[in-house]
Amino acid sequence: MAEDSPVLWLESAVIQLREELQQANHALMRVKAEVHASSLQPQRNMFFVAKTTSTITAMSGSTVGKGTVDIYRRGTSDDGLMTIGPSYTVYNAVATSISSGLWVMIQQDAGGDWWITVEDCG
């Protein structure tokens, strides 16, 4: 019986390690899913729905206005909108400012700057 003791301990340790590995794999899969969801970054030549998080200043002369927005995408399980990343600086080439909290459409130019292309009229 004394000879079996190290073997039983080793079997028990292997079982425990398998359980911990399975838990770690599940945790890794959850993290990968979260990273994937947060890495849905906008691509050039596409438009995005965004909500202003600051007042977007008006263009004045040849100086463009600017402010910040959160970018949204349509949810996969319903049609609700969900944010897809950090706030972005956007530029405004119109001589009218845009209030915070309004929905806009934005697009990225070839230089990587984000521009408001359509503004909420409400």
Could you characterize the architecture of this molecule?
This protein has one helix at 4-38; strands at 47-52, 65-74, 81-83, 88-92, 103-108, 114-119. It has 122 residues and is an alpha+beta fold. It has 2 domains: 1-39; 47-119, Nucleic acid-binding proteins (OB fold (Dihydrolipoamide Acetyltransferase, E2P)), CATH 2.40.50.140. Strands 1-2-4-6-5 form a 5-stranded mixed barrel. 11% of the residues are buried. The mean pLDDT is 84.
Compose a concise summary of this entry.
With 122 residues, this protein is of the alpha+beta class. It has one helix spanning 4-38; strands spanning 47-52, 65-74, 81-83, 88-92, 103-108, 114-119. The protein has a five-stranded mixed beta barrel.
Q: What's the helix and strand layout?
A:
Layout: H1 4-38, E1 47-52, E2 65-74, E3 81-83, E4 88-92, E5 103-108, E6 114-119
Parallel strand pairs: 4-6
Antiparallel strand pairs: 1-2, 1-5, 2-3, 2-4, 5-6
